[in-house]
Specification:
Number of helices: 12
Order of helices and strands: HEEHHHHHEHHHEHEEHH
Structural class: alpha+beta
Shape: elongated
CATH topology of the largest domain: Chitinase A, domain 3
Number of strands: 6
Length: 307
């Protein structure tokens, strides 16, 4: 499947691919096959229907997930075809299971449709109310801004890396104003090209522990000695400390609105299911006995209590 993954990846990287100029395919048209079975556009749509529309673009651009989905579909179709050819689908018990699976799929799709088509709530107003009622929940954590120089042990020994880090430390002790140029010249961190060795708003738990312990122990402007992690040796400078502060509503609005949307959907789902489940289940004792007698001998029956 490696060729498949490469093909998909390259295809999606070319915005002007000529295939986009073709007419839209028929839903019952096959587009992938293996052995004696194939997958249609309609079947593929059904297979990815569980993926939220907001995530579908990323899903389709992920070659591995696309490969897995198609492979599973083709395997299921091959198994089903073998079962039909063997007459297995004519077994009454198998037909009952197929009917039950069809009913379950319909019920799940209907419930999702009911939720998706229910009226929206005033999400932003609800989010603002949540923010005003619980302001203490929306304070930023104490964080720090740091810069670092990494001397990697990926292509050198730990002793060699430490010697380089100690030399860097000595240079900076004499001329700390050359920090930025030394970062760009010496650091092996691949991200240095884009961030110049700087990491902002680092909170406890964001970095590996030795790095974090050393960084949080520094004072603003102070430069550490060599700090060993699994990546090599780091020289760290504390750029500044960000004390906890009250976040403005606009800073957290997106997250709160999304939380309210999800909570609203859960309420709609629960209310609907509770409404359906409100009437008491009618199960007369004699019917319960008839059902259980199909599975147990009379002397094995231990009738459960029912309300």
């Amino acid at each position: 499947m490696k060729t498949f993954l490469v093909s998909v990846s390259l295809f999606l990287l070319v915005p002007g691919t000529s295939a986009w100029a073709q007419d839209e395919p028929e839903l019952d048209e096959s587009f992938a096959s293996r052995g004696g079975v194939s997958v249609t556009h309609r079947e593929f749509d059904a297979a990815i229907a569980h993926v939220p529309e907001s995530d579908r673009g990323a899903f389709l651009r992920d070659g591995r997930r696309l490969e897995r989905t198609l492979a599973n579909l083709l395997t299921q179709k091959q198994l089903a075809q073998d079962a039909i050819e063997a007459g297995f689908d004519q077994d009454p018990k198998i037909q009952d299971r197929m009917q039950l699976a069809s009913m379950r799929a319909l019920a799940e799709a209907w419930l999702q449709n009911y939720i998706d088509n229910s009226p929206d709530a005033l999400y932003e107003e609800m989010a603002r109310e949540q923010y005003l009622l619980n302001p203490e929940r929306f304070k930023s954590e104490r964080s720090i801004d740091v810069s670092h120089i990494l001397v990697s042990t990926e292509e050198r020994t730990a002793e060699e890396a430490l010697a380089i880090a100690q030399d860097v430390q000595a240079q900076l002790a004499t001329d700390p104003q050359y920090w930025d140029s030394i970062v760009m010249d010496v650091s092996d961190d691949p991200s240095v090209v884009s961030n110049r060795g700087r990491f902002k708003a680092i909170k406890p738990g964001d970095m590996v522990k030795p790095f974090e312990d050393a960084a949080f122990a520094l004072e603003a402007g102070q430069i550490s000695g060599p700090v060993q992690t699994q990546y090599g040796y780091h020289i760290i400078r504390l750029e500044g400390i960000n004390e906890p502060r009250q976040q403005a509503f606009e800073e957290v609005k997106g997250r709160l609105v999304e939380n309210q949307k999800q909570a609203h959907k859960r309420r709609i789902r629960d209310d609907y299911l509770n409404q359906i489940g409100e009437p008491a289940t009618e199960l007369p004792p004699e019917n319960l006995i008839k059902m259980l007698s199909r599975y147990f001998d009379e002397d094995q029956l231990n009738l459960p209590e029912t309300e």
